[in-house]
Write a structure and sequence with these properties.
Blueprint (H helix, E strand, L loop, with lengths): L8 E13 L2 E13 L4 E5 L6 H9 L6 E7 L15 E4 L11 H11 L3 H14 L15 H13 L5 E5 L7 H16 L3 E5 L3 H6 L2 E6 L2 E4 L4
Parallel strand pairs: 3-7, 3-8, 5-6, 6-7
Antiparallel strand pairs: 1-2, 1-4, 8-9
The structure holds adenosine-5'-triphosphate (ATP) and magnesium ion.
The site of magnesium ion has 4 residues, from α1.
């Protein structure tokens, strides 16, 4: 087994996803190729509507490509994305998806409850709430908090079980610079623990801090930040 095989990651080749509505067809993914390996942060840039969220939806198993291949690697080899659980693959959705009738703290710990490891994850949950400036408001419900606070809770929820793969859709979109940097720090630390990280982001600081930047345009990916 090579070193690369021991770390989680994924390889996607030729992903195509076309949405059809009546006579209209939208080629959201038009042959997207990418590979992300354990320990690296890859930033996914690209204009609104270029296919970033569609790509993340396919990578996490919320949606299925019409054609192309998606292979999880290392300890996740042979697994389909839809069967991966929170410790294996965590997502920060663009729409956040917090549970309305759970406090921020309970939202953050939800993956631990589902994994039946609440006690094990509590210290990490507390640490993330602290690092992301949420400790003081952790007992509030989402509707009693700002959008930026909700977004930071969604990132903490994704990180609480040390996921092997982290997919985050514009995780700094609702933040001031200071909180955005705290989020990027926490996300980089996750890659430092060996996770494969893919961030869809318009945040140029996130591009600068990433190990690599890919640009999406019209459903295809190229190397490097947009010009
Ligand atoms: N369910 C759907 N039905 C039809 N078209 C869709 C659907 N979901 C997305 N699209 C279209 O697919 C294209 C890609 O959308 P996507 O959400 O992936 O873009 P994005 O790069 O994430 O944009 P943003 O930066 O605004 O979040 C867009 O043209 C969008 O209108
Ligand atoms: Mg999007």
């Amino acid at each position: 087994m090579t070193g690369a095989d021991t770390r989680p990651g994924f390889v996607a080749r030729g992903l195509v996803r076309t949405f059809t509505r009546g006579a209209e067809t939208v080629p959201a993914l038009a042959g997207a190729d990418l590979a992300v390996g354990g320990g690296e942060v890859v930033a996914l840039a690209g204009p609104s509507g270029s296919g970033k969220s569609t790509l993340l939806a396919v990578l996490c198993g919320w949606d299925t490509a019409d054609s192309g291949t998606l292979t999880y690697t290392g300890p996740l080899a042979g697994r389909a994305p839809a069967e991966l659980s929170w410790p294996e693959l965590a997502l920060v959705p663009q729409a956040l998806g917090l549970v309305a009738d759970l406090s921020l703290a309970d939202n953050v710990l939800l993956p631990a409850r589902l994994a039946r490891d609440l006690a094990g994850a509590e210290p990490r949950g507390r640490q993330l709430l602290e690092e992301l400036g949420l400790a003081r408001i952790a007992e509030r419900y989402p509707h009693q908090t700002s959008l930026g606070e909700q977004q930071r809770a969604a990132v903490a929820r994704a990180l609480v079980l040390d996921p092997a793969v982290l997919l985050a859709d514009e995780p700094t979109a609702h933040q001031d610079r200071g909180h955005a940097d705290a989020l990027l720090e926490a996300i980089a630390a996750q890659a430092g623990r060996g996770s494969a990280v893919l961030l869809a982001t318009h945040d140029e600081q996130a591009w600068h801090r990433a190990d690599r930047v890919l640009s999406m345009r019209d459903g295809r990916l190229g190397e490097g930040a947009p010009a």
